[in-house]
Amino acid sequence: MPMNRGPESRPGDCLRHPIVMGMLCLWLLNDHLLKDLYGNMWTGKLSDVAGLVVFPLIPVALYEFFCVWKNKSPTHTTPILNMSLLSTGLLLIGINLSQTCSDLCCQVLGTLQWPIKGLVGLVTGEGWPPLVPVSATPDPTDLVTLPALVIPLKLHNLHQSSPPHTPERTSAPA
């Protein structure tokens, strides 16, 4: 998972790793199709695992883009990832063990989605929708998915331990 090591790295590469892209596709497919079709314990766990892999990498990618914007080297990806992993895990715990935390998160996510839903409503002629919180089903058994947080950490560590890419040298024709 390239995290600005080597000349081919770009900001946000952490989100373009095949495992992360696969988890993002699974998350979207699961939340917008599989839950409606099958809606069981497994569809909930799939979303949790996918979210635990993708979500902690978003602040890392944002940091990398910020560094490029400020013309700085992204030297703090590891502590940012560690804080993101910790806060993601605590958020999952809070959502599933505290109704207050769950309600607050539902309101925040509904607010974040509202402008996009509004633009879609304007384009489709349905008008601007009311602000509505998303729905959540707190489930303490979702905590069994917390080990999925190891995946973004391992991907990051794997990349950090690999040497930067260097282009092959070709000898000049004689």
Give short descriptive properties of this protein:
single chain; 174 residues; mainly alpha
Brief summary:
The chain is mainly α. The chain is 61% helix and 0% strand.
Characterise the protein shown here.
Helix content is 61%, strand content 0%. It has 6 helices and no strands. The protein has helices spanning 18-37, 41-54, 57-69, 77-97, 99-124, 150-161.
The overall pLDDT average reads 87
- What percent of residues are in strands? under 5%
Which of globular, elongated, flat, extended, rod-shaped describes the shape?
globular
Tell me the number of helical segments per DSSP (H or I, 4 or more residues long): 6
Query: Sheet bearing the most strands, described?
Result: none
Radius of gyration: 20 Å
> Structural class, please?
mainly alpha
The total of beta strands comes to 0
Report the uncertain regions: 1-5
H-E order: HHHHHH
Report the span from N to C terminus.
39 Å
Tell me roughly what share of residues is in helical segments. 55-70%
What is the strand and helix layout of this fold?
Blueprint: H1 18-37, H2 41-54, H3 57-69, H4 77-97, H5 99-124, H6 150-161
Helix pairs in contact: 1-2, 3-4, 4-5
